[in-house]
Amino acid sequence: MEPYELSLAAAADAIRARRLSPVELVDSVLDRIEEAEPHLGAYVTVTAEQARRAAAYAEQEAARGRWRGPLHGIPMGLKDLIDVAGMATTASSRVRAEHRATADSTVAARLGAAGAILLGKTHTHEFAFGLTTPQTRNAWDRGRVAGGSSGGSAVAVASGTATFALGTDTGGSIRVPAALNGVVGLKPTYGLVPRHGVTSLSWSLDHVGPITRTVEDAALVLATLGGHDPRDPASLSVPAADYRPGADTDLTGLRVGLPRSYYFDHVHPQVETAVRNAIGQLEALGAQLVEVDIPMTRYIRATQWGLMVPEAGAYHEAGLRTVPELYQEDVRILLEASEMMSAGDYLRAQRSRTLMRAEWSRMLEEVDVIAAPGVPMTAVGAAEETVTWPDGTIESVSDAYVRLCAPANITGVPALTVPVGHDAAGMPIGMQLLGRPLGEPTLLRVGHAYEQTQPARALATAA
Predict the structure, then answer these.
(1) 46 CB contacts (<8 Å, ≥6 apart)?
(2) Which domains does the chain have, with CATH numbers?
């Protein structure tokens, strides 16, 4: 096995035991970038020389016995909405062509202090306003979408061109590309991870979280990211914590919610079969399955768009007025649509969210986690714009991908996507686990327990 193929946890153990140096690991990943990146387009920019210098310094620290923790010497990618001092934050947009960050974002600073090594910035759907990331190709099939908006981050992790990466999630933008590329994606509880220095799409829905190879890796990254930051008005006063799950796979006493409604509606049969099989595996580990009804499902789409579109429009008001031609057409149309939404529409969406949060809180008193599909179908072809379901319903690809993820953004509950197999074409399928606010330890425990019963996952091979 080459160093770039190692999980974060395995690489961290090897670095701490001095069986692997940060220099060897970073060189291996950079070689993999050189091999795969021309075919995949995961990165906006690669900072190879900076990464090599940081790896040499991390190696010197390790030789002196200074080990900063499990991220020491681990190479990472950051979605190009996340500020790093002196670097461009382009948001994969011509609008930001001249931008340079003057300071680190909170998450970049915390990762740097933990010893993580930046490889470069990964592509996003322009300003995170989309679900496909058209610049980037799926790590398993270059003719298919990467998913979005954190498509570059997911493809980098899936292909071995980053050991872990950060994404942002406003309506599924961590979980969708993670599911479509066969990796783990975690959208934390709203406010758990500070967003200071991260370009906003919709401030009341935005989250920052890790994309990793394994659930244990996600826990290790989250432990570094969490903790209060007063510069983010939504930041929770919750101290940093150790989220690493134990080795025990016994789920006896755990109540897993099995949705009777919404999450299995208009879902591809192969996705449904894989997810139900994975839920069956949770039951085999001792979990009790409890059927639940998802509340207020008829309002989910309207609430998601009723919050996101006006907030995005407000953020981009100046740019839309001065340089509209610099936005990609799909994003510009959505931003222009925001000007047609009234204050009443936005307030109704806020009221709907308040009611939905209360109903979800009641539902989550009955169960510890909810298990469901992360996305209704695997990665579609890059040219496909719609999906037609067996009952004749036609749905846009973006609406389909956001549909099962949006409830966790509206309510702010944590959500984890875990790979649970492949369809007949070999494309990855993801199961989504949703929990109570600040219920990350339980989500990670359940995801890790499932993962421990499965064969080790190989990296994608499309490159």
Answers:
(1) 30, 33, 37, 119, 120
(2) 3-250 (3.90.1300.10)
